[in-house]
Design a protein that fits this description.
The protein is an alpha/beta fold and 222 residues long. The chain has four helices and seven strands. α1 packs across α3 and α2 runs parallel beside α4. InterPro entries: DUF3313.
């Protein structure tokens, strides 16, 4: 009986440790890239789609006050380097897909401008700050002593099922004042992949991009 009791205690502690390391649905401060000029005002916000983002909107911001938007070329920040999981071809395809979808989304809200010259112009600066994958959170049915120990062991060994993840940061600037009017840090989830040895493809992360685009289109107009 003492042995069984010890096993249960170990299992519960193992499960607790795993839960403590479960991934956040929004970016943590140590995951900020430095792309935005200021992160101090960001607040955790649930948007209409149910997703949570870190966001700040300048008081009094009126989208209708602007005659158009200029979209700076989407970038990786810091500069992305291919590795054994994400090839250069995949990085290029992710960037191209995100750029196309985001441009089409913003075109539904504002007149797209070929350059930022003139007055009453919004400048959108957007970066993909990470392409990665993280271990899936434990499911309720896993929280039993034996499964908890197995799940912990799998997570430690890198064999646990993973979610693909994209991090985006967006800085919307009033060109006349040079000040930020909207800042967003978004963590988006794509498809599930096998483990930390599986390569990440553009198809794996398209859902994260598509979800972001839907929220851009549906953002309340002001």
């Amino acid at each position: 009986m003492k042995i069984n009791h010890l096993r249960i205690v170990v299992a519960v502690l193992s499960a607790s440790m795993l839960f403590a390391g479960c991934s956040s649905k929004v970016a943590e401060t140590d995951e900020y890239s430095g792309f935005l000029p200021d992160y101090s005002k960001l607040e955790r916000t649930e948007i209409a789609s149910g997703h949570e983002v870190l966001r700040w909107i300048a008081p009094g911001f009126k989208e209708s006050a602007y005659r158009g938007i200029y979209i700076s070329p989407l970038v990786y920040y810091p500069a992305a380097k291919p590795n054994q999981r994400v090839s250069q071809d995949t990085l290029n395809k992710i960037k191209d897909y995100a750029n196309l979808r985001l441009t089409n989304a913003l075109a539904q809200r504002q007149v797209l401008l070929p350059n930022p010259s003139g007055s009453r112009v919004l400048v959108a600066k957007v970066a993909i700050t990470a392409v990665t994958a993280e271990n899936k959170d434990m499911q309720y049915y896993e929280v039993i002593p034996v499964a908890a120990v197995i799940a912990t062991t799998m997570a430690a060994s890198g064999n646990r099922t993973q979610n693909t993840v994209l991090f985006f940061e967006m800085n919307l600037v009033d060109k006349d004042t040079g000040k930020t009017v909207i800042a967003v840090v978004r963590k988006g989830y794509g498809k599930t992949i096998g483990d930390n040895n599986d390569p990440i493809t553009v198809n794996d992360v398209k859902q994260a991009i598509d979800d972001m685009v839907k929220d851009v289109v549906n953002f309340p107009k002001s």
